[in-house]
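Data card: per-record layout.
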Amino acid sequence: MERERGLRILGGFAVGIANGLFGGGGGMIAVPVLRSAGRPPQAAHATAIAVVLPACAVSGIVYLLHGFVPLGLFLPAALGVLAGGIAGAKLLRSLPSRAVTLLFGAVMLAAGLRMLF
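The structure for this 117-residue chain is written out next.
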């Protein structure tokens, strides 16, 4: 039990580092960590969002305060993210677990390929 807690803290630390360093992407770490802890796909994704949200908010505030993000870019993007997040959360409830897993894998693959090429 103590070992599991330590692994979860380490996983959470990795999620925070990814969000702070890359401006996001913690969910790409959180979902596999949560799945390995036995959470079903929908629950792993929902939990990852709940865990990553505060890290993204803190990182975003730090980025804004240090001038990395112009406010004119931030506000429209934030509105789009908010609307997309609501739509995605509603969609998550209606998709089968296998579809969620395949979509997540496809997004991870596409993001990785985009970064490489």
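Known properties of this structure: Helices lie at 2-22, 26-36, 41-65, 71-94, 97-116. The mean pLDDT is 87.

See the next section for split statistics.
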